[in-house]
Amino acid sequence: MDSRYDIPRRAAGGSAGSANSSPALGAQSRRRKMPPRPADFKLQIIIIGSRGVGKTSIMERFTDDTFCEACKSTVGVDFKIKTVELKGKKIRLQIW
Question: What is the per-residue pLDDT across 15-27, written as a single tens digit (0 to 9) for each?
């Protein structure tokens, strides 16, 4: 096996404080992540129109900032979520 993939192991007879001796394993491993602030508003948006007019393209441009010139037709339903902030309020957009 390649030595680049070896996992360093702690010595069995280490001192009681050795687990927290590394700054990377110290306070950060004990610190809990704060959950994201819930959205103030949740909106569902449904885009409808004839086939081939660019409904999926406009949705992907808005949510992912991407554009595909040679995309295949979407079969079924496409779904994206984007959270925006407006005047200090979080708005979660659910786009179909």
Answer: 444 444 455 555 5
Residues 71, 57 contacting (CB under 8 angstroms): yes
**Alpha helices (H) in 1-96, listed in sequence order:** 27-30, 55-64
CA-to-CA dists, residue 41 to 31, 34, 36, 57, 59, angstroms: 29, 20, 14, 25, 19
Q: What is the pLDDT of residues 28-69, one digit of tens each?
A: 557 777 777 788 999 999 999 998 898 999 999 999 999 988
**How far is Cα 73 from Cα 53, in angstroms, rounded to an integer?**
10
Residues 6+ apart with CB under 8 A from 33: none
**How much is the pTM?**
0.55
Q: Which of 1, 88, 74 is nearest to 41 (CA)?
A: 88
CA nearest neighbour of 66 among 57, 78, 75, 54: 57
